[in-house]
Design brief:
two-stranded antiparallel ribbon; about 10% strand; homodimer; about 210 residues; 9 helices
Chain lengths: ~210, ~210
């Protein structure tokens, strides 16, 4: 957006910086900047400090690679978790989603990315070697690949599978992928055909 | 949104702080926080610093009340502006909109609010006394009330008009309101009826 000499520099800089947020364009950024300065300067200060604090304080868990403020994240540090099971997810938000389902009592490994040849992200960029090292540990008996069911997530799952096979780990550990099918509450009439086809192919015996 | 003990505190605090932005709910805030930490930590730092800098550096212009980093804003400091004309707007964004139209060469007065009885904002809360003091100055010959054409903006315009009348300023200065009518490029078929009725009542002689 054209800026006029009438806007103070600090306001222009703030508007520009707000555009770094995902989904925020020039108009929204300007509205946000004006709102904070006009109606919520203390909110702006809190947000500013939270951002600087988060960037400084948050690092990656030594074991599972998710965000944490300590050496180990709270899941890895929790002695009540089943340490023989490892769930591989793309991002900390995915970890959170699985946690919220209360269906997993094992540990995690967070890739912090997915394979995306179009963006030049291959197996090396998402540090699959770290995952292999983790899976190699005697402690781990089962690996659940829980990458997204998007083309990139599927490519990532496939790359992990090949890698575990090439290292001879596929035979030693129980490796699985999250089930695909009709979502809970789903009505067949409104479900996309690819999902229905998948659910038919992978039908479960009762 | 329910937070789980698995998210580090600094990340929760950031997500919570991002919700102070207008139009940002819990899901969007979480997505923004994750995005910044995962893909753009330098953006997060820049945004954090811009916020703190803006809050510290930006104040109100002594003359017109808009945002500025100096004693006087750049419009008020500009000797090329017509100092006899004063345009009254609700907010710095409105000032920017009028500036961008390149149709105004006078000065401004920014109310930094509007009358809104439902929110407990009356004439006192938006400092109309400062506006009256500004209009009283001999320098000012003409006042254009450019508050929005919303119920609150109209109530504000009405309050300003009454106040100027009660102070005897209405007769001394040329007081006007922005024209209402069909927008440029507007097709009658798609314009709301209130605007058409207004445009008919306020039709101009050719």
């Amino acid at each position: 957006m054209k800026t006029l000499p009438v806007t103070p520099h600090a306001l222009d800089a703030l508007t520009e910086a707000l555009r770094r947020l995902p989904g925020v364009g020039p108009k929204t950024a300007q509205r946000m900047a004006m709102h904070l300065l006009q109606h919520d300067p203390s909110g702006a200060e809190i947000l500013g400090q939270s951002l600087l604090h988060a960037v400084a304080a948050i690092r990656h868990c030594r074991e599972c690679n998710t965000f944490t403020e300590d050496e180990l994240c709270q899941v890895c540090a929790d002695q009540g978790r089943d340490r023989s099971q490892l769930c591989v997810v793309e991002s900390p938000s995915d970890l959170l989603a699985v946690e919220q389902s209360h269906a997993w009592r094992g540990l995690y490994f967070v890739l912090m990315g997915r394979i995306s040849p179009l963006d030049g992200i291959g197996p090396r960029e998402i540090h699959l070697d770290r995952l292999v090292a983790r899976v190699t540990s005697d402690e781990v008996k089962e690996v659940v690949i829980a990458t997204n069911f998007t083309p990139e997530g599927e490519a990532t799952a496939h790359a992990i599978e090949s890698l575990l096979k090439s290292k001879g780990l596929y035979e030693q550990k129980r490796v699985s992928r999250l089930a695909r099918g009709v979502p809970v509450g789903g009505e067949l009439e409104y479900i996309d055909l690819g999902t229905i086809a998948q659910a038919v192919r992978e039908r479960r015996k009762l």
